[in-house]
Amino acid sequence: MIDELQKLVRKHWGHPAFRPLQEDAMRAVIERRDSLLVLPTGGGKSLCYQAPAVLLGGTTVVISPLISLMKDQVDGLQACGIPAVQIDSSLSPSERFAYEQDVRDGAVRLLFVSPERLMNPDFCNLCRQAQVKTFAIDEAHCISHWGHDFRPEYRMLSRIKEIFPGSSVHGYTATATQQVRDDICKQLALTNPLVLVGNFDRPNLTYRVLRRSDVERQILDILARHKGEAGIIYCLRRRDVDDTAAMLKMSGHKVMPYHAGMEPHERKRVQEAFINEECDLIVATVAFGMGIDRSNIRFIIHASMPKSVEHYQQETGRAGRDGLEAECVLLHSGQDVMTWQAILQKSAQENDVSPEFLPGALKHLNDMDQYARGAVCRHRALVGYFGQAYAEPSCAACDICLGDVEVVPAALVIAQKILSCVARVNERYGVGHVISVVRGEQTERVKSLQHDQLSTFGLLKEHSKQVIRDWIFQLIGQGVLVQTQDEYPILKLNLASWEVMKGKQKINLVQPVHKEKSGSVKQSKADVTSWEGVERNLFEMLRAWRFELAKQTGKPPYVIFSDETLRQLARVRPSNSEKLRYVYGIGDAKLRTYGSMVLSIIREYCEEHGVSMENDSAPAPDPAPRAAKQMNATRALAIQLFRQGSAIEDVMHQTGRSRSTVLDYLCDYIRLDKPASIETWVAKDLYERIAAAVKQHGAGRLKPIFLALSAKVSYDEIRVVMAHLSPGA
Ligand code: ADP
Ligand code: ZN
Prior knowledge:
Layout: H1 2-13, H2 22-30, E1 35-38, H3 47-56, E2 60-63, H4 67-79, E3 84-86, H5 93-104, E4 110-113, H6 115-118, H7 121-129, E5 134-137, H8 160-163, E6 168-173, H9 178-187, E7 194-197, E8 205-211, H10 215-224, E9 230-234, H11 238-250, E10 256-258, H12 264-275, E11 281-284, E12 297-302, H13 309-316, E13 326-332, H14 334-350, H15 357-373, H16 378-385, E14 405-407, H17 411-424, H18 431-439, H19 444-448, H20 465-477, E15 482-483, E16 491-492, H21 495-501, E17 510-512, H22 525-529, H23 536-553, H24 557-560, H25 563-572, H26 577-580, H27 588-609, H28 633-643, H29 648-655, H30 659-673, H31 684-697, H32 703-708, H33 715-725
Parallel strand pairs: 1-6, 1-7, 2-4, 2-5, 3-4, 5-6, 8-13, 9-11, 9-12, 10-11, 12-13
Antiparallel strand pairs: 14-17, 15-16
The protein binds adenosine-5'-diphosphate and zinc ion (ZN).
């Protein structure tokens, strides 16, 4: 079954393998077990209902909150040669009638509708006539009022299981919190659902956090390293959107503003211009983004801090959906917290909200502030916030790990000074007062409390307020100091604080180094590898061709080919359609439609510029977003089992993990132990054939080896053999 699925995915979508959890999620659909799949944006959720829909036949109904989201998917599916339609209010009666007839005839694999329409009795009848048994709910968190995007109309979906007895329901979301997940299962009335939660890390994103100083200069510097690329600048207020857009126009950037105060048709125009790549730079409030599926967004700038880490994750998540490198820069200042506090308080007063609203919102705000001021790896901090562990010691893709900030040499002593000051003022004062005391400020308050008499008075007088404030929040972030959650939060100590004061706990404090200029920032690994071997000018030519074609056909460019496909084309430069077939993202339908055009562009370019074709030695790009491997108990168990010579299927059974995960473990085991023979898993003659191909084509890439063996062995087998051939760990 899974083999068939894999073939089908290769044929229609051109993806060589599944991403983490996709196989398990698809199996749930095929086996008709209710399920909830939680993957970050760009993780590949849609394939998990699309591919099974094709395999199962019949019609799968997909519920989606926005017409634009449906349209993107329908376009994408049709481009891959899969019959998909959406029924919405924009259809004429005759169109609708024709579509409905197609559905009754069983000619439609995927049918997209809004929740309101699904619950309409006529539509329910249509589903019954077409014997629909599978329902996929996109953006499933919209059903929960705990989520950040509650939609009352989603509540109606709780009746699907009742209206269509015997059907299976599958939810998909990027929302990470446990509370929302549980609520989704409950609200959808799922029966014994399989809940799959993916890794929330986005390794291809580089996160940077800068204190906002000269915001114009800072934004221009960031834009300077993203020339010709797509990005969004988020501002807090409409006024800031207009000001920033005007400033950028003045400095020669092509930019469009977007906020909820604009006329609907204006907003639509901006969205379309961005999606169609007519405009690459948008300055917007957070109103912009939902329903924007453009996959090649290369940077997101937050000109001020969002109100929660969830929002931050969501907004930055729009970058790099194609798995290629992207940068997310957060510019923040203490002012942002105060602005948000005022906005939240006002909205709590004006709207009839529940009493939990304000404390909850302030807590989210505080968490975000802590993230911004934190001194730990940003990848680690983000996945940690969503309850996941980060296995790597360094991400090599954030300001902290790339060394944008400088480690403070005497961190422990500074921490001890701050903590003892908190102790001396009897843990009864807030951040501002503690700063005044350690800086030795002779304010009225300090004098009247006689805090200028304390032994800790003036211990850090050579440092600025701002720097000390940052350090205090870094200490809070490291859990050695506590800020209460009251209206007037005060600083308190905990057990860890005393360990620090005794010098028994390590402390890490950072401060920014002054090198925010465009040229001087370091590149992440993804920045470097994703362009390796790519003939840039050819990439730009292919991009221009895609743009023209998109205009002619009225489809968004990324529906034609993703940037990753274009980069691979410009890297490998295939000379015939057989080779083209093995490029990422090219399935049968796209090969037929675009193959000859692409080949002639590549050939012409290579001839004109004297560039070689068939660049098979080009290094493969990093595989698209892939969960960081974790040294966890399951992996240890799997390795143990392989040591005992267990078969792959046995290990899958015993660990409950998918085939692809178990194969990863097998490769790990082989690299680790270097067993003399791996005959148990790969037959001897096959091993020898693969080894010979590796010898001939080098171990840089799988594809040439795959081709050399006439595509008759699986990538998995090649991977396993290569693990065995690789030099010792
Ligand atoms: P999500 O809905 O989780 O945000 P999408 O379904 O839009 O993510 O997928 C994001 C991108 O990943 C798309 O460009 C899609 O074609 C690509 N993708 C999905 N599955 C795979 C796969 N197995 N291999 C390679 N690319 C994939
Ligand atoms: Zn890091």
